[in-house]
Design goal:
heterodimer; A: 313 residues; alpha+beta; BirA Bifunctional Protein, domain 2; 3-stranded antiparallel sheet; 14 strands; globular; B: 187 residues; mainly beta; 1 helix; 2% helix; 55% strand; elongated
């Protein structure tokens, strides 16, 4: 903490600015437009894994936006083909070295695309950021004492490969959500190759969330996550566009919420009706603050932005 | 009851009937997954340490632990006996519970006893105690090398290394954390 009570270093804030520049330059030069989701929402994504900040305004409950997904994806149905947003997202009770109750989400969607296009996007994006930061074509960064080569293509593993190798079992054949989540965090992630970012793809269908199932193997879904330096950076899908299947998944999430003692959430009806009018698309969410951690060799997410610095001592 | 979101370093909770203290704590959460609260825990009775991962919805009973200032009375075949100086209640600890503290306990010494559900589980000593030397051979003449030491036995029966000038009857200040000689307080 400096004298001004700001725990952010000048160097990190300057790098953060350049990272945002690199992000915007890449999206704009690739034909994306920037859109702005709300901060207050009347209907958060029904998920059993997220706790929300509820706001009392009028009679209807509102929530601080936990994720812009429900606002962005429907834009595909009105003919926007490539767009991104950068803004705050809020999740109650999340506080750790990689988590904050308020953080910054970068999310983008592209029509007539699938999750392989997202893999290319991520690689392009990180290269663009590096160029902005270094002003050269250097592609090796250092994070947490390890060198990471950001020259594409990054390594790609399937969930099945990663789990068989690092956790000794196959979650595609055996559904065990609890063990899956713990092993992903504590066995797989810490053991991924260190010298390159790694994409993990083809999650089990039961962990599909809003992802489309794989046409060639419905035990899997077209979901991909990006890891680098022990940081889980991004999560993306070939989007599920079947309103009825998506409704069933939301209802299942609501059942899980109830069993965990959480409140049932409204079903986002307008989102579901828009889904049916979307072209085949892919979308990805990336934790911008974690990206700042990676590029500034910072271990604690709370040092990556002024919004995370408490004013009260 | 505590909830998972209350978990933090230093919190004391009951697991399988025993009191544990959280010695390390880490929040993590996989994308689209449940929050994971990873704890390193230490059993406050046995010292046994373990890792446990908890999640939202898990509940924890706070460990009912109290400290009392007590005076050491004596030890015998049935254990080490202490008395509460205000209530005059007496408790007995086993040699295992007393552990290394036995090296420094002398009659009437004031110590802190930790109770779990009214059962004494451990003892903590003042950082420094003063004990008399009951046996120490004279230092070998001519051995003036700096840092040279010799063994000395204290009134509690504990033997440690002391400087050569220490004689029987001296009172020494001992650091109970390390068991080492600090200085001579009385010749």
């Amino acid at each position: 903490m400096t004298e001004a009570g700001i725990s952010c270093r000048k160097e990190i804030l300057t790098a953060r600015h350049l990272i945002l520049m690199g992000v915007r330059k890449w999206f704009l030069s690739n034909g994306f437009i920037e859109v702005q989701p709300p901060v207050i929402s009347d209907c958060p994504l029904p998920e059993s894994t997220v706790d929300f900040f509820e706001i009392k305004n009028t009679d209807t409950a509102s929530y601080l936006l936990p994720s812009p997904e429900l606002y962005l994806k429907p834009l595909l149905s009105i003919g926007l083909n490539k767009f991104f947003s950068i803004g705050p997202a809020f999740r109650k009770g999340e506080k750790g070295l990689h988590h904050l109750p308020e953080f910054t989400m970068l999310e983008w969607y592209r029509s007539n695309s699938n999750y392989y296009d997202l893999i290319k996007d991520c690689q392009g994006l990180l290269s663009s950021i590096l160029k902005e930061l270094r002003g050269s074509d250097a592609h090796v960064i250092k994070y947490n004492g390890k060198k990471i080569d950001l020259a594409p293509p990054y390594k790609i593993m399937t969930i099945e490969e990663a789990f068989k190798k690092f956790a000794g079992w196959n979650p595609v054949q055996e559904k065990d959500e609890r063990r899956f989540e713990e092993d992903l965090m504590f066995k797989v992630e810490p053991n991924l190759p260190e010298n390159s970012p790694v994409f993990i793809k083809d999650f089990p269908a039961w962990a599909a969330s809003l992802a489309k199932l794989k046409a060639t193997d419905t035990a899997l879904c077209e979901r991909v996550e990006l890891f680098a330096g022990g940081l889980e950076l991004a999560n993306g899908f070939s989007e599920l566009l079947d309103p009825e299947e998506q409704r069933a998944r939301f209802e299942l999430e609501n059942q899980k919420r109830l069993s965990l003692g959480m409140k049932e959430l409204p079903i986002p009806e307008r989102f579901l009706s828009a889904l049916g009018n979307c072209p085949p698309s892919a979308g990805m969410a990336l934790g911008l603050d974690r990206l700042v951690m990676l590029f500034t060799d910072t271990r604690d997410i709370s040092q990556t932005n002024i919004s995370f610095c408490p004013l009260r001592p | 009851m505590y909830e998972s979101s209350d978990l933090r370093k230093g919190l004391k909770i009951i697991i399988d009937g025993a009191p544990y203290i959280i010695t390390d704590f880490q929040f993590s959460k996989p994308g689209k997954g449940q929050a994971l609260y990873r704890c390193k825990l230490k059993n406050m009775i046995t010292g046994y340490t373990m890792d446990r991962t908890y999640r939202s919805g898990d509940k924890f009973e706070p460990a009912n632990l109290q400290e009392s200032k007590m005076q050491f009375l004596y030890n015998d075949a049935s254990g080490y006996h202490f008395m509460d100086t205000t209530t005059y209640d007496q408790v007995t600890l086993t040699p295992d519970q007393v552990g290394n503290a036995r090296n420094y306990l002398k009659d009437n010494m004031e110590v802190t006893i930790l109770f779990f559900n009214e059962t004494p589980i451990s003892i903590s000593l003042p950082t420094f105690v003063e004990l008399e030397v009951v046996k120490s051979d004279p230092g070998i003449k001519g051995d003036t090398a700096t840092g040279a030491t010799k063994p000395a036995t204290l009134e509690t029966g504990y033997t440690l290394q002391v400087p050569l000038f220490i004689e029987e009857g001296n009172v020494l200040k001992i650091d109970t954390r390390t068991g080492e000689y600090v200085e001579r307080v009385k010749s």
